[in-house]
Amino acid sequence: MKDYTAPSILSGFMELLPDDQIKFNKMLETIKGTYERFGFVPIDTPVIEKSEILLAKSGGETEKQIYRFNKGDSDLSLRFDLTVPLARYVAQHFNSLTFPFRRYQTGKVFRGERAQKGRFREFYQCDIDIVGNETLDIINDAEILSVIYSTFRALGFEKFKIKISNRKVLNGFFEYLGTANKSDILRVIDKIGKIDGKSFKEELVKTGLKNDVIKKIIAFINIKGNVDSIITQLSEMEIDNKLFRDGINELKSVCGYVEYFNIPISNYMIDTTIARGLDYYTGTVYETFLDDYPSIGSVCSGGRYENLAQSYTDRKLPGVGISIGLTRLFYQLKEAGFITEENISTPTKLLVIPMEETMNNALDFATKIREAGIPTEIFFNECKFAKKFSYADKLGIPYVVVIGSDEIAAKEFKLKDMKTGEQKTMRTEDIINTLKTI
C-alpha cells in the first residue's frame, strides 16, 4: 500500500476555503477602493528584498523575526512589513515620483514570531502613506484620520473609535520628567485597562521611579474628556518643554482640520497614552478600536514620521501613514461572529445548464451574459438534473437557466431564483438587467 504524506500547513499561516476567501477578498477590495477614492496610487514591491536593505534601520527583535536565507552569494530576506520597502522604493525612484507621493499597497508580509491564536507569521497588510519632499503639511495627518473613518464605514462598522495623540506630547513629557527608563515606563502605560490602579502604581514603582514622578505620570494618564477639554488640560499643565508644547499645537491643528472632514465626534477621541512605536513615530499617532469587539485590540494604527528613508538617502522625506492587518482582522471578526456564514463559495451569479442538443446555443447565451459583466458558469458534466441544481445550491449560485430546444425556439428562458424557487420566463436582455441588480 502506498504511503502518503499527510497534507498540512505550517502553524501561523492562514488558508481559507472558497466561501471565506470570497469574503476576505471582498474586504480587501473594499479597503483598496476606499484608498483609491482618496487619490492613493497602488505600488507593489518584491516579497524578497536584500537583507542589507531590510535591516538597514532594524535590529533587535525585528532581526530575530525575519525569515532570512542565502541563495548563492545573495543574502535575502522576506519583507516583515510594507514600510521599509516603501522607504527603499521612494529613495530609489525619487526622481520619477511626484510629491507629495500618495501610495497604497496591499500584500503579504512575514514574521517568524511565535504563532498564537489570531496572530500569524504570514499575513496581509493594507497600507497607505503620504510622503513629502522636505516638508509635509499637518493637514495630511487629519486626512489620514478621514481615510480610517471612511474605510471602516465602508467595511460595515458604525461604532468604532479612532484614538489620536501626538508623540511629541509623550516624548516631551518624559523629557520634562527626566526619566532614563522610558521603555520600561511605556510597557507599564501599555497595560492601562488591563490592570487596576493599585497594580499600575506598583508596576511604576518597579521601574525605579520616585513617588513624585509617579504622581505626575498618573495625573497625565488620567486626563480625560472631549477633544477640546483634553487640549485645554494639556495646555494648562505647568510643563516647560518645547517638544511638549509643539505636540499640543500639532494635536490642536489636526483636530481643527478633522471637523471639516465631517467625521462624527463619536468616532474619534484624543488618548495621550497611546504608547506604541515611540522610537519610530515623531508626531501624530493613530490607533483604531471597534466598540463591539474590544478584545480584538487595535485594528488600524500608524502615524507621522519625520524622515522615512534616512537609511537610504540624505534627502528628508517626512510622511504619515497607517496599516490594517487584514489577515488578523478577518480571523478575529470571524471568530466574533461578524463575518456572516452566508453560503457563497463562488463569484458566479448564473449557472447555465445546457441540454445535449443545445450546447452551442448555451455557449452563445453564456458569452452574451459574460460580456455584460456578469460572472457566468456553464455546467458541462453529464449527470441527473437534480445533481446539477444541487451543484448550484452548494456553491450558493443565486440563479440558474436551463437551455433547451423550446427555449431556443421561443428566444425566452426560465430564470430560476435558487433561494425562493421562483421561475420567470424572460428574454436575454431582461435576464441581464435582472442580474445586474444583484
Explain how this protein is built:
With 438 residues, the protein is α+β, with helices and mostly antiparallel strands. It has helices at 18-37, 51-54, 61-65, 83-92, 139-154, 167-177, 182-189, 197-206, 211-221, 227-235, 242-258, 326-336, 359-371, 385-395, 405-410, 428-435; strands at residues 41-42, 48-50, 68-71, 74-78, 101-110, 122-131, 160-166, 268-270, 284-290, 300-305, 319-325, 350-354, 376-378, 399-403, 413-417, 423-426. The strands form three sheets. The protein has an eight-stranded mixed beta sheet with strand order 1-5-6-11-10-9-7-8. β3 and β4 form a beta hairpin. The two termini are 51 Å apart.
C-alpha Rg, in Å?
Answer: 27 Å
- What coarse outline follows from CA principal-axis ratios? elongated
Instruction: Report on the biggest sheet.
Output: 8 strands, mixed
If helices are DSSP runs of H or I spanning 4 or more residues, what is the number of helices? Answer: 16
Low-confidence region ranges:
none
Strand content: 15-25%
Mean pLDDT reading: 91
Question: Main sheet: which strands, in order across?
Answer: 1-5-6-11-10-9-7-8
Our measurement of the CA-to-CA distance between the termini, rounded to an integer number of angstroms, reads 51 Å
What's the total number of strands? 16
Residue share in helices? Answer: 25-40%
Structural class per helix/strand content? alpha+beta
